[in-house]
Amino acid sequence: MNALVFIEYKDNKIKKSSLECLSAVKGDSHTIQTCAIGAGSDQLTAALGAWGVTKHYSCTDVDTYNPELYKNFVAKVIEQTKPDVIVATSNNVGRDIFPRVAAQFSMAYMSDITEVEMDSDLEVKRPLYAGKCTAQVTFTDDSGKILLLRPNQISVVEASESVTTENIAIAAGAPSGQSETLSVEKGESEKLDLTEAETIVSGGRGLKEAENFKLLHDLAAPLNATVGASRAVVDLGWVPHSLQVGQTGKTVAPSLYFAIGISGAIQHLAGMSGSKNVVAINKDEKAPIFQKSTYGLVGDLFEIVPVLTEKLKSL
Ligand SMILES: Cc1cc2nc3c(=O)[nH]c(=O)nc-3n(C[C@H](O)[C@H](O)[C@H](O)COP(=O)(O)OP(=O)(O)OC[C@H]3O[C@@H](n4cnc5c(N)ncnc54)[C@H](O)[C@@H]3O)c2cc1C
Fold this sequence. Notes:
The structure is a single chain. This protein is α/β, with parallel strands linked by helices. The chain has two domains: about 1-170, HUPs (Rossmann fold, 3-Layer(aba) Sandwich), CATH 3.40.50; about 195-315, Rossmann fold, CATH 3.40.50.1220. The protein contains eight helices and 17 strands. The strands form four sheets. Strands 7-11-6-1-4-5-12 form a seven-stranded parallel β-sheet, sandwiched between helices. The longest helix has 15 residues, at about 65-80. It is elongated. The chain starts with a strand and ends with a helix. Bound molecules: flavin-adenine dinucleotide.
């Protein structure tokens, strides 16, 4: 199988979510080629060699995010590589670009994939109805397929090949003018985006007021965690919507998720039920969140959280 992986990176380092994409396609019978866009996208070849990537397509002349230019770049790479399958991360960028690519090339498109079987007939799994059931999908025609993988679902395998990766530069070309990026504003947090975070500390209405979110930031610091929130506190204006976890917020799947002063409404669970371990802190022992938690602490968060923070700081 000829696979093309769309690589995302930060500070010249391939993001973990892209390593998960590479892990999903790594196998003896697959040829892996990669592409990346933005300043420094041509500097990734040394790291990609370990994954057995022979050709890497880069585009360095785009410095501001523009879905049209990104799509044009990917389209040019597809024309050169003719992949059977394209793999990228199921995040805002992936979900913005790849439906456009799928439409242009009449390819099958699937996002939010949590499991992928590349060896036999291509088969993927993705949750439906806010995680209440799982769809098992195979592809019946021979057109190319675009698979977007949810972060933190596929284990990163060891990359130990020593292939020389050729960098092939592609020019982005001029935008057609159908859309224009007016400005790009950085999110609140300097930490990892919620969708990629390994550890998340989320807070809800139990925190009583916006200022008390400081307690969560203090707890997040020794854990190197990203702070999230329930919709109730976003609606109250305590934190921006970019922090919201749930059906109308972000879908997250960290290794460790703290739900602090969050009741566990179905719409919140929809966004975090893929978490591997959940620690719930709530003073109501009947709160639904405890049914989803690995560890439950019944008590007052204002007493528990500072003690937990001090303990973690001392480790
Ligand atoms: C269409 C739709 C979409 C929605 N989308 C989302 C979504 O994406 N994300 C989302 O989160 N919600 C979403 N909601 C809202 C959801 O239904 C709940 O209203 C919301 O999740 C509740 O937030 P909460 O748990 O912070 O607040 P509450 O339900 O008020 O819970 C607060 C909790 O804090 C506990 N508590 C209070 N004081 C303390 C204390 N001192 N110590 C410990 N615990 C304490 C209480 O026991 C309680 O369990 C959506 C709703 C609708 C209708």
